[in-house]
Amino acid sequence: MDALYTAVATATHGREGRAVSSDGTLDLQLGIPAQMGGSGQGTNPEQLFAAGYAACFASALGLVGRAAKVDVTQAAVTGEVSIGKQGEGFGLAVTLRVELPDTVDEATGRKLVEQAHQVCPYSNATRGNIPVELVIE
Length: 137
Known about the structure:
By secondary structure, the protein is of the alpha+beta class. The protein has three helices and six strands. The protein has helices at about 45-70, 105-120, 120-125, and strands at about 10, 20, 25-30, 75-85, 90-100, 130-135. The chain has a three-stranded antiparallel sheet, with no helix packed on it. A three-stranded mixed sheet has the order 4-5-6, covered by helices on one side. Strand 1 and strand 2 (about 20) form a beta hairpin. The longest helix is centred in the middle third of the chain and has 24 residues, at about 45-70. It is globular. InterPro entries: KH_dom-like_a/b, OHR, OsmC/Ohr_fam, OsmC/Ohrsf. This is Ohr subfamily peroxiredoxin. Belongs to the OsmC/Ohr family. It holds the Pfam family OsmC.
Protein backbone atom coordinates (compact mmCIF):
# COMPACT_ATOMS: atom_id res chain seq x y z
CA MET A 1 0.00 0.00 0.00
CA ASP A 2 1.18 3.51 -0.82
CA ALA A 3 -0.06 5.52 2.20
CA LEU A 4 -1.76 8.82 1.40
CA TYR A 5 -2.23 9.75 5.05
CA THR A 6 -1.41 8.29 8.45
CA ALA A 7 -3.48 9.16 11.51
CA VAL A 8 -1.66 9.01 14.83
CA ALA A 9 -3.39 8.87 18.21
CA THR A 10 -2.26 7.84 21.67
CA ALA A 11 -4.48 6.29 24.34
CA THR A 12 -3.45 6.24 27.97
CA HIS A 13 -5.01 4.27 30.85
CA GLY A 14 -7.05 2.03 28.55
CA ARG A 15 -10.83 2.29 28.55
CA GLU A 16 -10.83 4.74 31.46
CA GLY A 17 -8.23 7.14 30.16
CA ARG A 18 -7.81 9.60 27.37
CA ALA A 19 -7.26 9.44 23.60
CA VAL A 20 -5.41 12.27 21.86
CA SER A 21 -4.44 12.66 18.21
CA SER A 22 -0.95 13.84 17.32
CA ASP A 23 -2.33 17.09 15.90
CA GLY A 24 -4.55 17.72 18.93
CA THR A 25 -7.83 17.86 17.01
CA LEU A 26 -9.03 14.73 18.83
CA ASP A 27 -8.85 14.83 22.62
CA LEU A 28 -11.37 12.60 24.33
CA GLN A 29 -12.03 11.27 27.79
CA LEU A 30 -12.58 7.51 27.56
CA GLY A 31 -14.97 5.58 29.74
CA ILE A 32 -16.40 2.11 30.13
CA PRO A 33 -20.07 1.87 29.10
CA ALA A 34 -22.55 1.41 31.96
CA GLN A 35 -23.69 -1.83 30.26
CA MET A 36 -20.18 -3.19 30.84
CA GLY A 37 -20.01 -2.12 34.47
CA GLY A 38 -18.50 1.32 34.00
CA SER A 39 -19.69 4.81 34.75
CA GLY A 40 -20.70 5.49 31.15
CA GLN A 41 -18.82 8.79 31.33
CA GLY A 42 -16.69 9.39 28.28
CA THR A 43 -16.39 7.98 24.80
CA ASN A 44 -15.57 4.30 24.31
CA PRO A 45 -13.61 2.53 21.56
CA GLU A 46 -16.76 1.00 20.07
CA GLN A 47 -18.29 4.46 19.56
CA LEU A 48 -15.11 5.64 17.86
CA PHE A 49 -15.06 2.58 15.61
CA ALA A 50 -18.78 3.02 14.77
CA ALA A 51 -18.28 6.68 13.85
CA GLY A 52 -15.16 6.00 11.80
CA TYR A 53 -16.69 3.08 9.92
CA ALA A 54 -19.92 5.00 9.22
CA ALA A 55 -18.01 8.02 7.87
CA CYS A 56 -15.68 5.89 5.77
CA PHE A 57 -18.55 3.81 4.36
CA ALA A 58 -20.53 6.97 3.50
CA SER A 59 -17.51 8.26 1.57
CA ALA A 60 -17.17 4.93 -0.26
CA LEU A 61 -20.88 5.07 -1.11
CA GLY A 62 -20.41 8.56 -2.53
CA LEU A 63 -17.48 7.35 -4.62
CA VAL A 64 -19.40 4.46 -6.20
CA GLY A 65 -22.50 6.64 -6.55
CA ARG A 66 -20.58 9.26 -8.54
CA ALA A 67 -19.08 6.55 -10.75
CA ALA A 68 -22.59 5.19 -11.43
CA LYS A 69 -23.99 8.72 -11.88
CA VAL A 70 -26.43 8.18 -9.00
CA ASP A 71 -26.86 10.99 -6.47
CA VAL A 72 -26.39 9.56 -2.98
CA THR A 73 -25.16 12.79 -1.38
CA GLN A 74 -28.13 12.76 1.01
CA ALA A 75 -27.48 9.19 2.20
CA ALA A 76 -26.85 8.59 5.91
CA VAL A 77 -24.86 5.70 7.35
CA THR A 78 -25.26 4.63 10.97
CA GLY A 79 -22.65 2.30 12.41
CA GLU A 80 -23.49 -0.06 15.24
CA VAL A 81 -20.54 -1.82 16.86
CA SER A 82 -21.24 -4.54 19.40
CA ILE A 83 -18.71 -6.05 21.78
CA GLY A 84 -19.16 -9.35 23.57
CA LYS A 85 -17.46 -12.42 24.91
CA GLN A 86 -15.85 -14.60 22.26
CA GLY A 87 -13.98 -17.65 23.44
CA GLU A 88 -11.45 -16.62 26.06
CA GLY A 89 -11.53 -12.97 25.00
CA PHE A 90 -13.85 -10.51 23.34
CA GLY A 91 -15.10 -10.00 19.81
CA LEU A 92 -16.84 -7.34 17.75
CA ALA A 93 -19.75 -7.32 15.32
CA VAL A 94 -20.88 -4.46 13.08
CA THR A 95 -24.18 -3.45 11.55
CA LEU A 96 -24.17 -0.63 9.01
CA ARG A 97 -27.59 0.94 8.47
CA VAL A 98 -27.69 2.83 5.18
CA GLU A 99 -30.51 5.28 4.58
CA LEU A 100 -30.61 6.12 0.88
CA PRO A 101 -32.45 9.04 -0.73
CA ASP A 102 -35.98 8.28 -1.95
CA THR A 103 -34.78 8.94 -5.51
CA VAL A 104 -32.66 5.75 -5.45
CA ASP A 105 -34.60 2.57 -6.28
CA GLU A 106 -34.10 -0.56 -4.16
CA ALA A 107 -32.09 -2.58 -6.71
CA THR A 108 -29.74 0.30 -7.51
CA GLY A 109 -29.34 1.07 -3.82
CA ARG A 110 -28.46 -2.53 -2.97
CA LYS A 111 -25.90 -2.63 -5.81
CA LEU A 112 -24.26 0.63 -4.67
CA VAL A 113 -24.12 -0.49 -1.03
CA GLU A 114 -22.49 -3.79 -2.04
CA GLN A 115 -19.98 -1.93 -4.22
CA ALA A 116 -19.20 0.48 -1.38
CA HIS A 117 -18.58 -2.53 0.86
CA GLN A 118 -15.93 -3.70 -1.61
CA VAL A 119 -14.03 -0.39 -1.73
CA CYS A 120 -14.41 0.91 1.84
CA PRO A 121 -11.08 0.57 3.72
CA TYR A 122 -12.89 -0.36 6.96
CA SER A 123 -14.82 -3.08 5.14
CA ASN A 124 -11.61 -4.38 3.61
CA ALA A 125 -9.92 -4.39 7.03
CA THR A 126 -12.75 -6.25 8.75
CA ARG A 127 -13.66 -8.69 5.96
CA GLY A 128 -13.25 -12.25 7.22
CA ASN A 129 -12.41 -11.04 10.73
CA ILE A 130 -15.72 -9.88 12.17
CA PRO A 131 -19.32 -10.12 11.02
CA VAL A 132 -20.56 -7.03 9.16
CA GLU A 133 -24.26 -6.78 8.33
CA LEU A 134 -25.47 -4.27 5.74
CA VAL A 135 -29.02 -3.01 6.23
CA ILE A 136 -30.68 -0.66 3.76
CA GLU A 137 -33.42 1.41 5.33
